[in-house]
């Protein structure tokens, strides 16, 4: 993993949700298959035509708050995306090792925040399905702050409303653009090699990244033992 920080100097660990704690396979399936197929049916067009039409529309909003907003896309596409997510919620799943990871961190006295770009509608569905909420002292959706995590305004607003010391905080996130913004703001950052279990692990990442949560637990425990 190669994360060159001392764990006894980290107070708060902020976790992303989709692709970090949850398998991104669900979201990729939902947006690339369910949404496209449903829209194609509603518009009475082929799947291929729907994909060609929707892909550039999605791309235009990438990295913005709209990109993550169920109400925005529901209005634009004329679909009830919240109902569609609920319909397919059985596919939502934790990445392997998440529960032991969070329990270990809490046992070592770390403060855990869930910091996500997920819209509150999607967040509620996923928390209900996974039971993640009990592990976190704060659950933060960027939609409540007016900026996506990719934007420096989010980190400025977050620090104003929930004071934290960037140099004693770690963000774990599968998005390199989010990691870049957080790192620029002064946080330690850690990426995810394989956010979607059905796709190959990514290579040539710009920030330290893990492949398995067991790596994270092992390094944490070794560091704390050394620094007793």
Automatic annotation (TrEMBL):
Coiled coil ranges: none
Pfam families reported for this sequence: HAD_2
One record GO biological process: DNA repair
GO molecular function ontology, one term from the record: phosphoglycolate phosphatase activity
Top-level taxon of origin: Bacteria
GO cellular component labels: cytosol
CDD domains listed in its UniProt record: HAD_like
InterPro entries assigned: HAD-like_hydrolase_sf, HAD-like_sf, HAD-SF_hydro_IA, HAD_2, HAD_sf
Matches recorded under NCBIfam families: HAD-SF-IA-v3, PRK14988.1
Protein's UniProt name: GMP/IMP nucleotidase
């Amino acid at each position: 993993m190669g994360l060159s920080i001392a764990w006894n100097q980290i107070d708060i660990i902020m976790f992303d949700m989709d692709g970090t704690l949850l398998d991104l396979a669900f979201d990729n399936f939902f947006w690339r298959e369910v949404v496209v197929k449903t829209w194609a049916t509603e518009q009475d067009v082929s799947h291929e035509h729907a994909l060609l039409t929707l892909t550039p529309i999605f791309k235009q909003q990438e990295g913005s708050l709209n990109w993550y907003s169920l109400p925005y896309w529901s209005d634009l596409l004329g679909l009830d995306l919240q109902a569609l997510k609920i319909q397919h919620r059985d596919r939502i799943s934790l990445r392997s090792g998440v529960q032991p990871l969070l329990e270990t961190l809490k046992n070592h006295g770390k403060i855990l925040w869930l910091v996500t770009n997920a819209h509150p509608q999607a967040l509620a569905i996923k928390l209900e399905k996974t039971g993640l909420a009990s592990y976190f002292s704060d659950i933060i959706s960027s939609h409540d702050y007016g900026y996506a995590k990719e934007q420096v305004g989010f980190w400025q607003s977050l620090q104003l409303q929930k004071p934290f010391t960037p140099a004693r905080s770690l963000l774990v996130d599968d998005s390199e653009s989010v990691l870049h913004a957080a790192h620029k703001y002064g946080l330690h950052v850690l990426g995810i090699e394989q956010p979607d279990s059905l796709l190959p692990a990514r290579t040539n990442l710009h920030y330290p990244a893990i492949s398995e949560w067991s790596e994270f637990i092992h390094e944490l425990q070794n560091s704390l033992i050394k620094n007793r």
